[in-house]
Design goal:
Order of helices and strands: EHEHEHEHEHH
Number of helices: 6
Mean pLDDT: 97
Low-confidence stretches: none
Distance between the termini: 28 Å
Oligomer: single chain
Helix content: 40-55%
Number of strands: 5
Number of domains: 1
Largest sheet: 5 strands, parallel
Radius of gyration: 14 Å
CATH architecture: 3-Layer(aba) Sandwich
Length: 148
């Protein structure tokens, strides 16, 4: 189950991503926003991060104009590893090496087709494990120390 969230700047792209997920039979929950009226991105990043923390969803996709704000907010939550998916290669590497559980798309700087390619790469990539698992454990220790 994928949690989806966007602000007004990412709304149109989120709707296109939903169509793609429907086409490939991936389930999702839409945590808003539901139109292009101005809103604040932290609301939706928080909703998606909490859905993953609570295990209501396995992973998430967030969309805003630059992607930066959503990435910052999502990474404030323990257990969340959000990364900006600026292209297919970065999205694939972020999943393989860092096992990101939230892919963030920058709607102002990426086309719909490139976004879908990034989502496809992220969904289709497995985490490598091995030494990368050791690094994730290091991240967990940092979270334990700094997210009290």
């Amino acid at each position: 189950m994928i949690a989806l969230g966007s602000d007004h700047g990412g709304y149109k792209l989120k709707e296109e991503i939903k169509k793609y997920l429907d086409e490939i039979g991936i389930e999702y929950k839409d945590y808003g926003t539901y139109n292009e009226e101005r809103t604040d991105y932290p609301i939706f990043a928080e909703n998606v991060a909490k859905a993953i923390q609570s295990k209501e969803c396995d992973r998430g996709i967030l969309i805003c104009k630059s992607g930066a704000g959503m990435t910052i907010v999502a990474n404030k939550f323990k257990g969340i590893r959000a990364a900006l998916g600026i292209n297919e290669e970065v999205s694939r590497a972020s999943k393989a090496d860092d096992d990101i559980n939230i892919l963030v798309l920058p709607s102002q700087y990426i086309t719909t087709s490139a976004s879908i390619a990034s989502v496809r790469a992220w969904i289709g990539t497995s985490f490598k494990g091995g030494r990368y698992l050791e690094r994730l454990q290091m991240i967990k220790e940092i979270e334990k120390e700094n997210m009290k």
